[in-house]
Design goal:
Radius of gyration: 21 Å
Structural class: alpha/beta
CATH superfamily of the domain at 47-299: Ribonuclease Z/Hydroxyacylglutathione hydrolase-like
Low-confidence stretches: 1-42, 149-160, 358-363
Largest sheet: 8 strands, mixed
Shape: globular
Distance between the termini: 37 Å
Number of strands: 13
Amino acid sequence: MQSSCKRTGAGLRTLIAAAAVLGATQMNTAEAMESAGTSLYPGTQTPQQQNDFLLRGDGAVHVWQVRQGGPTAASVYVLVGAGANITVHIGTNGMLLVNSGKEAMSDQVLAALKSITTAPLRTIVATDASPEVTGGNIKLGATGKSVTGGDVTNLIGASSGITAILATEAVMDRMSARGSRDATPDGAWPSSTYTNSTKDLWFNGESIRLYHPPAAHTDGDSMVYFRYSDVVSVGDTYSSARYPSFDLERGGSFQGVINALNHLIYDVMIPGPQNDGGTVVIPNYGRVGGYSDVVFYQEMLIIIRDRIQHLIDQKKSLQQVLAANPTLEFDPRFGATTGNWTTTDFVTAAYKSLSKKAPTRGRKGSTP
């Protein structure tokens, strides 16, 4: 897959940081890397150091091209470093975003968007209700304009003058509920919601399908599949930088994450030769991936789930499960001892989730 990285900040440090985010391995000179304090030679950074960078960024927003469009085909980009990764879909009808990033990064996001297109912003799809996903809704939304038909624009309270915001009904409920930890000003709320397992859009000459996996990261997740571009934004159900984050208080579950990955693998994604290429996967956090990345992640989680479930069946306590280290061989790649989602946090949440109801194991590792 060809890539193009565009500088959205000043200075060599920003360029090198962007290259690190995108997995690039070549720079002009070794001296330049030494002077910038960043080395891209293989083996110079541990996986956890790389993951920390992918999760926290460098304070700048970087642009990564995923698909090159044409006269009638849309182009797809990813903005990295604004909080949750932002997918950008650009074509003849305008621009659609998946996520809007953190509120504090909105100015940088707008500058990055202007660097790649002058198309109007029509729609923002929120993969969940977290502030790193929806924080830019108000500022970014005010710059665009939704598309409406008939005399809808004459109705009081119509949102035709701003960008449409689309999410599941559960996201709307949380963002609009007084006293909710996800409560936001009404300008950030979704202007359109859905409750079914799927919702279909037609935009930029392309069919776009939204999938609502029940009880995965939360009970209000959306995954967005651009069918012609063959790109899917998967929210927090997959990450190249950490174990999956699922929020039990918001209706998430360990098994629900596995079920969502099963759906991606068996019903959505199509692999290329030797499982390389094919459908492109954009997580909320981490590098852009493909079919084999998601399969590895799914199989890892099934192994960890079965280990923890076996210990639960033996009446082991949470402390005994943590001491057994059920994630041992995967920790160097996905584990963390600091931050807001450590390995201990993941195992604890998995234990609590699986203790509620033991899953029925099958070929796909999913419940019936």
